[in-house]
Each structure stands twice: as C-alpha cells, then as structure tokens.
Amino acid sequence: MMKVAILGAAHPHVDYALAEVAQRDELELVAASEPDPQLREKFLSGVSAPLYDTPQQLLEAHDVDVALIAGIYSHRAEATVAALRAGAHVLADKPLCTSLEQLEAIREAASKTGRHVSIVFEKRFYPATLALRRLIADGVLGPIAMVASTGPHKLNQPTRPAWFLDPATYGGIAGDLPIHDIDLVLDLAGEQQGARPTGTVSAHVGNARAEDHPGFDDHVALLMRAGQVPATIEANWLGPEAADVHGHYRMRVTGSLGTAEVDWAYHRLTVTTHSRETWDEPLEGAQRPAQYFFDAVLAGQEPVITTSASLLATEVALKAQRSAEAGGALQQF
C-alpha cells in the first residue's frame, strides 16, 4: 500500500491526489496538513484522514510515500524539502516555489534523497497536446521553427484570498501562469534536439488594473529561446469576466512544413500544411491529471514529467520573473 499525504491545501488541485486515491486500491490517504481553517474547510472538508497544522507535524506522525504539495505558493518549497527529507516523492501543483533560492534548496534535497519531484503539468496530457505530439513525431509539421502561446485568465478578484494578491506569498505572474507553456516549449525543443535545451529568457510585466490590486502584476509577456526554438508566451489575469471559460490557453506551433494551432479550452487542434488545406485533427480521450505520476511510481519508474523537467521549467519561469523585475534583462538557463 502506497501512503499519500497532502501538504498544504490552498488550491482546488488537491483533487489531483484525491482522485487517484479514489481510483486506486494501492493508494491510501494517510493525512493532510493546512494551517488555515478556512482553507481546510474549503478544500479538505471531505477528507476523513487526520488533519495537521504543519507539514512537519504530519511527517513526524506518519510514514509518507508520496506528498502532494498544494499550499500557499511561498510555503510550498519548505513543504517540498521536508517531504523529500522524510523520504517521500513529491507531486506538486504549480508553481513549485516562488524564488530561485527556494528552487536551489529543493534541487539539493532531491539530489541528496533521490526522490522524484514532479509538477502536474497536466496540459501535456490533454487530448489536443497528445495529438499535436503525434503530428510532430510523424513529420507532418516538419522541424519546429517557432512557438507562440497566449493564456488569458479571469481574476475573479472577489473570490481571491489576500495571500493571492500579495507578491510576498504569490510570487509573481511570470513564475505562475506561463509555466505550463514554458514546460511544453522546453519539452518539444528537447525532443527535437535530443537533449535538455539551454537558452535565454526575458520578460516584461505590468498592472493594468492597479486601482483594484496595487502591487499585483496582472499581465506578462515573455520571450524565450529553447535550443534553436524561439517562443513568445503571454499570459494575464485580464480575461473578461463574461467569457465562458476561466482560462483560454492557446498555442501555435510553426514548422517548416505547416502550422498547428491548439485551443485547449475548446478542445481543438487545427492544422494547415503546404500540401493540405486546414483541418481539425481528431482527438482521443483524456487522462486524469495525476495519473501519469502514480502509474510510474507504482511501477517503480520515474514519472514522464521528471525531476529535471520540473526544476528546469521552474527555473525558466523564475528567471523570467527576475528579468521582469530587472526591466527585461536577458537571463541564461
């Protein structure tokens, strides 16, 4: 029996772990921790396992094989390091942490313990993404030349807790919203060149609604180069409140032979090549967001979203945030 614990519950993505426990007889939820009573009530009210105020209290009381990290963003690094030192693999909601110093502490703990750290980049497993990968693998688009993505989200400010609008606990927008697309660009570029990509990143942020949330940047524009693949990524908390989707992530992948446009919100992959007019690529079924992780660890294997990939995407996102704070200064990764 694999023992699972939740360390921090400040986001609905705690359901990633709960869904797997419900689906698999090999998993047991042994405990959860969250110091905030309101967050406990909101996200852990259905949990019958023991509840603790801190990850340290939980880890002292229970043996844990897998820890889901989903607390307040600035608190996640401490919980991650504690879990790793206790011998647990870490499955993390994004962002993993809010500073490069925190990231280095996580990197060191993961290296010393040999435990996995995997961020749930669930967009990798959406049907449209899997179909895009098949097209690329089959050579339909040719070698990837460039990528452009966009990610407007509704802020829904009246529903946001105070910590979310505070840079001290939220971090910054560049370290949060763009990271799914950063991961995809890194992964696609890495597959194309057959090695972990290196490159550069720069970013600019701004606060279009400063009168509503002073100090909380609500949009970011990011330019990165992963290996030989340049990418532009923009994301924001300016999504219209009347929109019928909360987050409208889209990505255009341009190859030497054609272009594919992914619209994740509306479950579409639209493709055009030099030899074929525009078509909608058929999509297959979805999988649960954390399914990949437990499939792997239960089989004694490394998850497909590896520790290396999780830490690299986090590094690029945090360096984008550092770039924005330095007026767009170029950062190496």
TrEMBL record:
Gene3D superfamilies cross-referenced by the UniProt entry: Dihydrodipicolinate Reductase, domain 2, NAD(P)-binding Rossmann-like Domain
InterPro entries according to UniProt: Gfo/Idh/MocA-like_OxRdtase_N (IPR000683), Gfo/Idh/MocA_Oxidoreductases (IPR051450), GFO_IDH_MocA-like_dom (IPR055170), NAD(P)-bd_dom_sf (IPR036291)
Domain (GFO/IDH/MocA-like oxidoreductase) ranges: 130-260
Domain named Gfo/Idh/MocA-like oxidoreductase N-terminal: residues: 3-119
UniProt-recorded Gene Ontology molecular function terms: nucleotide binding
Organism superkingdom: Bacteria
Pfam families: GFO_IDH_MocA, GFO_IDH_MocA_C3
Name the UniProt record assigns to this protein: Gfo/Idh/MocA family oxidoreductase
